[in-house]
Structures are given as structure tokens and as C-alpha cells.
Amino acid sequence: MEKIKQSLPLQIFIALGLGIVAGLIFLALGLADFTTDFIKPFGTIFLNLLKFIVVPIVITSIVQGVVSLSDIKKVGTIGLRTIIYYFCTTAFAITIGLIFANLFKGTYKVLQTSDLAYEAAEPTSFMDTIVNIFPSNLFQPMVESSMLQIIVIAIFVGFGIIIAGDKGKLFSDWIDSVYEVFMVIMRGIIKVTPIAVFCLITPVVAVNGPEVLGSLAMVLLTAYIAYAVHMFFTYSLAVKTLGHMNPITFLKGALPGFLFAFSSTSSIGTLPVSMECVEKMGGRKDVASFTLPLGATINMDGTAIYQGVCSIFIASCFGIDLTFGQMLTIVLTATLASIGTAGTPGAGMIMLAMVLQSVGLPVEGIALVAGVDRIFDMGRTGVNVVGDMSAAMIITDYENRREAKEAKAAAK
Ligand code: ASP
After folding, report:
1. Among 205-214, 283-292, 387-396, which stretch is predicted with the lowest mean pLDDT?
2. Ligand 1 nearest atom to the CA of residue 347, by list position
3. Looking at residue 39, what DSSP letter applies?
């Protein structure tokens, strides 16, 4: 594990570079079709495998998290605090994204692209979204990867195990075992990330030419500046004021998790690493095993930033100027949109459709940024995971204080 963690980011960068070079060579040889027919499918296999692993990992890790808190009331208070924290930081993140995108808007060129096509899902109303969180069937959410329903199932199962006591022990052990087995599979999948990155980036360059990277450089730069500001400013402030922790210590401790997320572009795939980082920083295991998997599924600050930046970018490309009201709508929808999808590669781009629709922007605009989504995704997943770790540290501090206070009161 240690070795992969250290070398994976480097391998990914090499693969990214080689992929771009290979793409240019295939382009020069006129073999762009070859790359989409025979290289891209290997990248797709990797993405499929990551999607396949998400459901078992999320269910088992959240059940374990709830069980490890061993008290339903505690799950309630910790859960509520965690969710409020995730909501607030996400809204903050998207605001930062919008501010920087507005500052840089003048530098975005109107892009010429021949194949503006993207199919969006139908948007659902707010109340329907709430109702749909509660599943009417045990297996359907797993089949359809409906993450919010899966979280609800996992929390109920966790509660069931706690209340059933000794009788629930066998089921709990079984869940632990399922978790371990799928973790082993996931580590295997993550190991081949460099090959997947190569296979995904080569056809992008071969089909679109090097301009796809050049013309999108400004919007990529905007997103990365906003990612950095959110990480260094918002999280530092949050861990300092809410978690009573030195921000430098936090950022240093979170670095391996960031790098792993950056390379794998999967918050879920990064879970074992972020768990280790939090524990090394003194975070509590019971808190981390609940807040981290929950965060990997619902907390996506980097994704929210990306959605804000891309909305402004796409609007500019189509010559549309967004009003302040529309930007507020973006803050709201992007916050909600970043909750519903799991931390897997490319998930944020699918949610971007919902954000664009909410303010009447052309959804086909996604095609403008789709080519370089991988590069956006690396940064946004890194931010997502650091956000999850900040919550684990803040809630740890809160729990430690609460317990100390209770112990003091009991001693009196
Ligand atoms: N890849 C991101 C994650 O795993 C989700 C996204 O695509 O924005 O957190």
C-alpha cells in the first residue's frame, strides 16, 4: 500500500504525458479512429470496474461506520453536524468557483466545436428528490447505484445491527468480511489507474487535436486556482476555528490522501488512504469510519467548484451573461447536485447537466469540457477528499470535547 501511494501519482503523470504524446502520434498518422475503437475501451473497462465497486464499498463502510458509533443518538448528532458542515463548505466552494470564473470570464474564447452533443437526464423537483431518498425496494437502489437510497439503507441496517445486539453480531461480522473482500478488489483496480489514464487521454488528443488542451487552458487554470483557494483558505479556517487544529499540520497530514485522490479520481477509491491519514493526525476511528464514507458519497466541494466554473465558461462560450439570481440558483443546484452521485471518476460531469438545466444553459455545452474532464477531475477529487478529512478532524474534536465535558460533569 505504502509503495503504491508514493509512486501512483508519478506513474499517473507519466501516463498522462505518454497518452498526450501517443495521441499526437496517432493524430499525425491519421489513426484517430483506431484510438477510439481499440484504446478507449480499456479506459472504459476501468471506469466500469470503479462504478461496480462503489455500491458494495459504500454500503459496507457506512454500515460499519454506524455500528462503530454504537449508539443511535450519537449517529444522529454526528450525522447532523457532518451533513451541515458538508452543506456549508460546498456552498462556500461553489461561491469561490463562481467568483474566480467571473474574474477570468474575459479570457474564455468562444470555442468552435463540431460535435456539440450531450444527453441530459430529466431534472426532478425538490420534493421528489426528498421522497426518492427513501427506497421502496432493497435491491433496486443497488442495481441502479442510487447513492442516497443506498446511504439510507446502510444507516437503517446499521441501526438494526445496534438494536439487535448479540443477534446482529453475525450479520455485522459478515458485513466486515464483505468490506474486506471488496477492498482487496478495489486496491487491485486502483493499481491499474496509470494504464487507464493513458487509454482515456490518448483518444481525446487523437480525436480533438492538441488544441483541446490549449483552448481550455484558461478554464482549467481558473478551476485549479479556485480549488487551491478553497483548500488553503476554507479548510484551514474550518479546521482552525471549528476543529482547534493547526491548519499546516492538517494540510500536511492530508497530503497522501490528496495525492491518491488526485491520481485515482475516485473519492471512494481513496477511502483506505484517507482513513489512514485521519488516524495518523489523531482523528477518531469511530468518527472517521462514519464521516469519511459519507463524505466520499455526498461531499464534493471540488466538484461544486468545477460546476460553478464550467457553468460560467459554457455561458460565455455561448455568449450568455448570467444574472446574479441565476448564479444563486447555480449555488443551490450545484450544492444539491454534488450530493446525489458517488465519488467515482467523471461523476461530476454528469451532474453538471443538472446545474446547467437549472439556469437554462445549453446542456450540449458539456461537450466543450468533456475532453479534458480527466484533468478537472484530478483536482476536484483531491479537494473532495481533503474536505472529507477536514470533517473527520472537526467532528473528532467536537466528540472529544463533548466526552470530556460529560466526564467532568459525571465526576462532580
Ligand atoms: N471524481 C470525483 C470523486 O470521486 C467525483 C466527480 O467526478 O466530481 O470525488
Report:
1. 205-214
2. 7
3. I
